[in-house]
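Lab notebook, bench 4. The sequencing result for the construct came back, and we need a structural model before the next group meeting so we can plan mutations. Quick request posted to the team channel:

Model the 3D structure of this chain.
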Amino acid sequence: MKNNDTVTQILAALAIVTSILCTLYETAATQKRLEAKFVRAKHIRGRQYPVLPCLVFNLNNKKITDLVELTVMFENTGSPISIIDIKSPVTIVLKNIESIVLAEVIDPQPGNIGVTATVSGNCVVISKSMLNQGDRFFVNIVCETMKVSDHYISGVHARIKGLDQIHSTLNPGERHIPTKYAPYVITISFYLFFCWVLFRARHRKKNSGDGARNG
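Done. Here's the predicted structure in token form:
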């Protein structure tokens, strides 16, 4: 009888966890989520990173001493985002720079996304384009820097209907759990919690039985 009670409790816990997983999955599938991830900062030339002493960069008749190439990845991990949803375009704001030399979109997946990047002051503006779930692209930015730094991106922002904020990982070494995995992490946590509760309940019941027999 005791074994049957334990099995019943485990099955009930699994049913609850399965119900939670289905609810979270359905909720996640209907939410808009756009993620921005810093990929790398590559120094092309600088006071501390000379490529060749004789190599000189000039922009508008101005000698450039420090150049860095930044790469940021964008991915839609939620429901589709249409052009009419985008009230204000995605904008990358930079810091610790003198000017932006070049900004371009590379390696779009799929290749027909049609996203472009333009420079506006110390910002890079991404054109409005429909993004389906799983669509991704990279933005390459070449900047003249004020100083050698590990932090050149101040933030990424946009106004998109149904999207509270862009989930950003913009600092080197920063890590986070992608939001598309959040339902599974939560579900596993619930499952482990229920297993712990059942284990504790069974352990207390066993101790109570042993105590009664000893008494």
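The mean pLDDT is 76.
Will bring this to the meeting.
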